[in-house]
């Protein structure tokens, strides 16, 4: 079932988040992820690491989720209200950030643990040449860590650059979370939901640390 989420997110049916039906389906997926228990989110990230490690696949997934997050901010700007849909979308975007880092770490670990087995049918000069090439490769690897498949700028919200969120509101959210700092990938997997009283009644919301744009600028 979790494997189907990635395929659904990449479906052409959800390519236009500004349209009502794709927006509604995407919002339900975001809410499903936000309402998952911690073990469910961890398992989802493991599935994404296994199935979406190809750069183009993961980049497409990030762009699809980011586009939806931008659309939630634009709609909030029109309604003059920051809805829970914004933070639920950002949670999935941050989960993808953790997936991105986990893929880079797995690749780095794989390269470090790879073993060289000599070919005893080769001449001494061929063996020495292979060792020299491999030593050169290891040296470059040590000096230049592997980059994550998807660059950081792909996680930045265009709607923030367009100032769809009033600067004074964004500043207030920043002040509330400045001491704690941007949310980390491990925290995204552990965050609980809780019921809070709002102007619109009780709503299940994410903790204040998730209700911030610090990680998406």
In short:
The protein is mainly alpha-helical. The protein has helices at residues 2-9, 20-34, 38-51, 55-79, 84-113, 124-143, 158-161, 167-177, 185-190; strands spanning 194-198, 201-205.
Explain the overall architecture.
- Helix 4 packs antiparallel against helix 5.
- Strand 1 and strand 2 form a beta hairpin.
- It is built from nine helices and two strands.
- It is mainly alpha-helical.
- A two-stranded antiparallel sheet has the order 1-2.
Mean pLDDT: 79
User: Can you list the strand order of the major beta sheet?
Assistant: 1-2
The separation of the N and C termini measures 32 Å
Which band does the percent of strand residues land in? under 5%
Unreliable runs, pLDDT <50, ≥5 residues?
140-144
One letter per element, helices H and strands E, the order comes to: HHHHHHHHHEE
Radius of gyration: 21 Å
- Structural class of the secondary elements? mainly alpha
Keywords:
61% helix; 217 residues; 2 strands; single chain; two-stranded antiparallel ribbon; mainly alpha
In terms of topology, how is this protein built?
Elements: H1 2-9, H2 20-34, H3 38-51, H4 55-79, H5 84-113, H6 124-143, H7 158-161, H8 167-177, H9 185-190, E1 194-198, E2 201-205
Antiparallel strand pairs: 1-2
Helix pairs in contact: 2-5, 3-5, 4-5
């Amino acid at each position: 079932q979790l494997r189907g989420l990635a395929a659904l997110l990449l479906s052409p049916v959800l390519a236009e988040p500004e349209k009502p039906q794709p927006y509604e389906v995407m919002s339900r997926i975001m809410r499903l992820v936000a309402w998952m228990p911690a073990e469910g989110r961890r398992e989802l990230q493991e599935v994404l690491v296994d199935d979406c490690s190809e750069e183009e696949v993961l980049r497409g997934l990030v762009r699809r989720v980011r586009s939806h997050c931008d659309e939630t901010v634009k709609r909030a700007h029109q309604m003059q209200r920051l809805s829970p849909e914004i933070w639920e979308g950002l949670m999935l975007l941050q989960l993808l950030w953790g997936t991105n880092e986990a893929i880079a770490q797995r690749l780095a670990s794989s390269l470090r643990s790879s073993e060289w087995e000599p070919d005893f049918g080769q001449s001494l000069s061929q063996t020495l040449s292979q060792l020299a090439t491999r030593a050169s490769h290891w040296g470059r690897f040590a000096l230049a860590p592997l980059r994550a498949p998807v660059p950081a700028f792909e996680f930045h919200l265009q709607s923030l650059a367009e100032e769809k969120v009033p600067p004074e509101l964004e500043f207030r959210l920043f002040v509330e979370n400045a001491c704690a700092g941007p949310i980390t990938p491990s925290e995204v997997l552990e965050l609980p939901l809780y019921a809070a009283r709002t102007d619109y009644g009780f709503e299940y919301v994410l903790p204040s640390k998730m209700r911030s744009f610090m990680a998406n600028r």
